[in-house]
Amino acid sequence: MAKQLNNPVADLWALNFQFNRYYLQGEATDRTREQDVMNFQPVLPLHLTSEWNLITRPVFPYIFSSPDFEPGDGWDDKSGLGDIAVVSLLSPAKLSCGFIWGVGPTFLFPTATNDALGQGKYQAGPAAVGLYMGKEWVFGTLAQQWWSFAGDNDRESTSQANIQYFIQYLFGDNWQKGTCMNWTGFGCLKTWS
Predict the structure, then answer these.
(1) What's the pLDDT score for residue 192?
(2) Kind of pairing, strands 157-172 and 84-92?
(3) What confidence score (pLDDT) does residue 191 get?
(4) Residues with Cβ < 8 Å from 145, sequence gap 6 or more?
(5) Which is the most buried residue in 4, 22, 45, 46, by most CB within 10 A?
(6) Looking at the DSSP assignment, which residues form a beta bridge with residue 136?
(7) Residue numbers of the chain with a pLDDT score lower than 70
(8) Nearest Cα to 108, choosing from 80, 79, 143, 148?
(9) Which residues partner with 139 through β-bridges?
(10) Tell me: the pLDDT tens digits for 130-167?
(11) What is the 3-state secondary structure (H, E, C) of 90-146?
(12) pLDDT of residue 184
């Protein structure tokens, strides 16, 4: 059970909560430049055939505090719902030598309750996951890339990536220790005519 809970393409429905704290502009000591986010991430597998599963994982972010810079006024905290992401991965139903993988599309929807908490753009792109599930170790990577294709015309087009690395050590008796790290890259796409 512990292995399946750590497997993002497991044949197990799971309701996960993940807390993230981001230090913006590298200022870990400046509390006005922190962003605290609680993600609700259910994992919803569907059996397509005896050989294949479709794993859908929406991510509903609630931002407790996010700094918003207003020229002349300085920093002001905002809170509320962020942009919702959904990834769907087609994955083999069975492990092969301890390895499993999945590929599929990923989407971001402009659902933020405040302009400072989202990008105002519909976004789509590819996603892939690969992981190893051994007797004592579970480790792998989930990678996603999004490009904007519609949304608020007053906001710049976007290109962003998220790569999540995870590693867990299973002690037995349902005890485990691990870590999960996110790398996020943002960019704006400019159009020249």
Answers:
(1) 43
(2) unpaired
(3) 43
(4) 106, 125, 126, 127, 159, 160, 161
(5) 45
(6) none
(7) 1-14, 23-33, 66-77, 186-193
(8) 148
(9) 132, 167
(10) 988 888 888 899 999 999 998 888 888 888 888 988 88
(11) EEECCCECCEEEEEEEEEEECCCCCHHHCCCEEEEEEEEEEEEECCCEEEEEEEEEE
(12) 75
Which two tokens mark 78?
A: 């905002």
Burial of 141 by CB count in 10 Å (0-12 exposed, 13-18 middle, 19+ buried)?
middle
- The total of other beta-carbon atoms located within 10 Å of residue 90's CB is 15
Task: Please name the residue that has the structure tokens 């750590």.
Answer: 6
* Residue whose structure tokens are 């989930």: 142
Query: In which residue are the tokens 């608020």 written?
Result: 152
Cα–Cα dist 183/189, whole Å: 20
Collapsed DSSP state (helix, strand, coil) of residue 157: strand
| pLDDT score of 152 | 85
